[in-house]
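We emphasize that the prediction below concerns an isolated chain of 189 residues; any contacts that depend on oligomerization or on bound cofactors are therefore not represented. The input was used exactly as deposited, without trimming of termini.
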Amino acid sequence: MARPVVHDDTLRRRLLDSAASLIARDGAAVVSLRGLAAAAGTSTTAVYSLFGGKAELLSAVLDDGFASFAASQQEAATGGLEALGRAYRTWALEHPVLYGLMFGGSLASQVPCRPTPGAVEPSIGPLFAAVAAALPGASKDAIASVVGVVWGQVHGLVSLELAGAPAAGWTWDAAFDAALRQIGRSLGR
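Result of the prediction step, given as a token string:
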């Protein structure tokens, strides 16, 4: 009697990691399920069994990235805005492929996939809480506006650094430190 095929969490993890790597290298439109399965050392049956298909697998890659990113933000949350900014940069530099897939927009333009509803919010929640703590009594709209400005500043610097842009006469560490200090000063911290 043949052993049943086991599609476990280890295989799921291998497929997610292989998908992110292959997409970063070749682009989502070019990557096939057969190629993904081969890279993960399995069959397309495993992909269909665990995810349902290519779009669902790619959505799971996005969800996985946002879950990892959210965990890093939640871990840094007790340190306030500066700690959140540093955790943002650290996570992005440690996971440049996922960061690019999550925030680059190219994945959804190549294959119809999106993070599942609710996957993104936990990653931005700590920033909303830190801004609300820095601005007691501020309206939800005011907090959201400040969150947008802070996130835009941090995200912009990290994206430029990952793109290999020159640091305009200083290091990226110095640029990031200066931005975090300015954000803190602008919020009275």
